[in-house]
Amino acid sequence: MSQSHFLDGSSPPHISTLAILAGVSAMNMSIFLPSLPSMARDFGVDYGTMQIFISGYFLSLAFFQLIIGPVSDRIGRKPTMLAAFFLFTVSTLICEITTNFYLFMFFRMLQAGVAAGFVLGRAIVRDIVPMEHAASMIGYVTMAMTIMPMLAPAVGGILEEQLNWRYSLRLMYLMGFMSLLLIWLDQKETLNKRELSGSKFSDDYKKLFLNTDFWFYVIVMGFSVGSYFSFLTGAPVISAEYFNLAPSLQGSLFAILGLGFLLGNFLTGRFARKIGPTRFMLWGCFIALLGPLLQCFIYLNFYFGPLSFFTPMFFVGLGQGLIVPNAAAGIVSVNPKLAGSASGLGATIQVMIGGLLAYITGYIISIFVTPLPLIIILFFTILVSMFFSYKLQKSGSF
């Protein structure tokens, strides 16, 4: 592996660059969450229609991830990353100035090009480090990038209360522009030209589709992240309608989940090589399951306030911090020559699972505005991840 130097375009991208780019990708999903009710009022639509803002964006993410990975396997990581972030920056600017809901949603979906930040970040890690180090490095990258989406809802809530929700778009436009400069100055091409894929997209995907381990890793990560998507969809409604919380306080409480995720990724970075990815994934599922179990116990037996709802999510975040980077390392390692395609396809399926769960959650919560349905959804999504983590460990996979 070549030594990385920050803002040195002749060396592989620095770990902080990968973390920042992935962080911008994640921040764009969560900064608007406390503002969804205000956005619905400004555009003159009901909250159910505004759910398209979440589920539609997830579906668009799935599409972009499906093509970003294979394209990067053919033309390289750097040009693909530059094109994707340029699309994101321009789309964000148009979202900020338009007052038409349908035009806003169209360019909101184009914002999903920012998915390159985490899709290609994982592929780049696999380009520059061997398989046995990938989980550890992805853990550190994810730990660093967690700071942005952890703070994003609080930042979005403050911007809405002090100014208005469109200032969140202005902030994301600035982040997109700065990301373009960072890619240009720091990211050397990491894909070996001799490894550029010349096969058809369909041939690459066929190899991955026929790999059982690939599917198991994807399902584990998909349902783990799906529990997070479900929470992001249902929690703002419950916070506003059930607990009557202000947007800025909602954002602060969301940080509890992020703190757990941050710690989990640190533990992955520190111990993944010693303990092993599949064992870590299974441990993560057991820890994550404590969250909804504790919520349910308190809900059925004691006073259930905002802290009773949000504090157990620390365990969900901690478990996901053990699951996600290890599953991501497994996905890009099943066929290293197709790391970009594997990362993109895996992320696409993951987001499709998450989008479906988000839609189901939004529909149920719009009918039953109480915490219990969301708690039940969290429990069963984590249980699915646990089952396939167990299958991977029993099969002796990486």
What's the layout of helices and strands?
Layout: H1 15-30, H2 36-43, H3 47-50, H4 52-75, H5 77-97, H6 101-110, H7 116-128, H8 131-145, H9 147-162, H10 166-186, H11 201-209, H12 212-242, H13 247-275, H14 277-301, H15 306-310, H16 313-333, H17 339-367, H18 371-395
Helix pairs in contact: 1-7, 1-8, 1-9, 1-10, 4-5, 4-6, 4-7, 4-17, 5-6, 5-7, 5-10, 7-17, 8-13, 8-16, 9-13, 12-16, 12-17, 12-18, 13-14, 13-16, 14-16, 14-18, 16-17, 17-18
Describe the structure.
By secondary structure, the protein is mainly alpha-helical. It has a single domain (15-191, 202-395), classed as Growth Hormone, Chain: A, CATH 1.20.1250.20. 81% of the residues lie in helices and 0% in strands. The chain is built from 18 helices and no strands. The protein has helices spanning 15-30, 36-43, 47-50, 52-75, 77-97, 101-110, 116-128, 131-145, 147-162, 166-186, 201-209, 212-242, 247-275, 277-301, 306-310, 313-333, 339-367, 371-395. The chain starts with 14 loop residues before the first helix and ends with a helix.
Helical stretch tally: 18
Alpha carbon gap, first and last residue: 21 Å
* Average pLDDT, all residues: 81
Rg over alpha carbons: 20 Å
- Sequence of secondary-structure elements: HHHHHHHHHHHHHHHHHH
| CATH topology heading | Growth Hormone, Chain: A
CATH superfamily: MFS general substrate transporter like domains
Structure classification: mainly alpha
